[in-house]
Fold Cinnamoyl ester hydrolase.
Amino acid sequence: MTTISECGPNDVYAAACPCRDMLDLLANKWSALALGALEDGPRRFGAIKERLQGISPKVLTQTLRRLEEHGLVSREIFPEVPLRVEYSLTPLGVDACVPLAGLRLWVEDNIHRFPASA
Amino acid sequence: MTTISECGPNDVYAAACPCRDMLDLLANKWSALALGALEDGPRRFGAIKERLQGISPKVLTQTLRRLEEHGLVSREIFPEVPLRVEYSLTPLGVDACVPLAGLRLWVEDNIHRFPASA
DNA sequence: GAGCCTAGTTCCCATTGGATACCATGCTCG
DNA sequence: CGAGCATGGTATCCAATGGGAACTAGGCTC
């Protein structure tokens, strides 16, 4: 059994490596979209929900909380009326957006090549 | 219902765009790992299973079949004894590996920045 | 015929995904 | 004063998925 410290070169292929969990966190439809939605600056819950067409509030909350938990997103509450809650990218989140944006763009650019995508 | 041609700029943020399905297919832990496992050439089922530490045969079959279905991977059966089945990347699969490799590498390079990843 | 090899399949259960409905706060309008 | 609306969620429920363990099938080899 490989311990974490021995996980050495941080191999996503190693089951015990924390990389696996991070990959699982990022390699996820809603995570990739949510992080992308914050690329242009902080956004409110409602705005993100509007951008991520088709997401339910529960799943959006789950997604954002999970990203927050792992230090990719920060959540700020403004006790105004009506209540305002803003989500924004942390520096780590900003950096994570680079490969994720690459993935999103690749999909958009290559969608026509997929067979029977109808 | 939005048709493909009307889906316009192929927006992954649009719920009805087939991009969404493709993103869901690729933005997945096992898909990203499986495609990466085939980057160096065709591999047998057993070899892939060995590489993707911790995956169960059922999930691997599901993953590979789904990738095959969408034209990213091709499956070839050699009716030898014992049976040999080789999986390899299609040209589309090869291209898809680029952004996915970027994601895997980013995770490996930045894992130390994640809080409490231990 | 026992056992092994590969490449799965089958069964079953726990977790997750997701839709819908509802809630709390506190304005603002009538 | 109560009705209604806005925001940012929960609560509830059900279906789909993820995933482990065990089993299968064809066909050598011992």
Notes: The beta strands of chain B are 43-44, 73-78, 84-89.
